[in-house]
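Database export, one record per block. Field names are fixed; values are copied verbatim from the stored entry.
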Amino acid sequence: MFTGLVECVGVVRSVSYEGGGVHRIGIHAPSIAGDLKLGESVAVAGACLTVVESWDGMFYAQMMSETTGTTKLSSVKPGDRVNLERALRAGDRLGGHMVLGHVDCVGKVSGITNEGSTRKFWITVPWDISWGIAPKGSITVDGVSLTVIDAPGKFDESFSVGLIPTTLRDTTMGDLAEGHRVNIEIDVLARYAARLLGFEAETNRSDESHLTWEKLEEYGWPTGGLK
């Protein structure tokens, strides 16, 4: 479990294929590498990875085919900067929102506007993910917990978020340009709402007290192709 509050930015030093669908990634992150233990979880650009080795300011993690197939880590290369966050410990403050480190899709930055010292990003996502993005709701972009400003509409697959100067400076969000790919994780509450609605449809319940896709749309959730 993570919060989406980035601890530091690491630099990828190596990426290699170990066989059997497993890739190994080495990241230079001296501010946290010395404290990492074997088997510990670290969110790398929003994707939860397991530490397999740590020494001399570096840590190494393995990525299975599911990770490389569903995240932008499939195209990461030496020299790339990545947001890093260690797993939440019992008793820590939950300053962002509940983040699992399970990337739902890879989005694309489709627009950037400067608004004073802040910056507004428009990000396009697959339509079958847009149902989980709501106005004022939480979203994780490359491991950063952000608040949705504009949610996707019925005929629009883009949402927007705003970045303050501190976030732009202390994370990789300030490096982004139009066309860049980003890892996206929707709010975990949206996942469970969709799951519950799926069971609701399977049992053919019609009681108006139950949650329905129509009610979700009425409350502002873009349900996309899930109905």
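Remark 1: Residues 28 and 58 are 4 Å apart (CA to CA).
Remark 2: The mean pLDDT is 88.
End of record.
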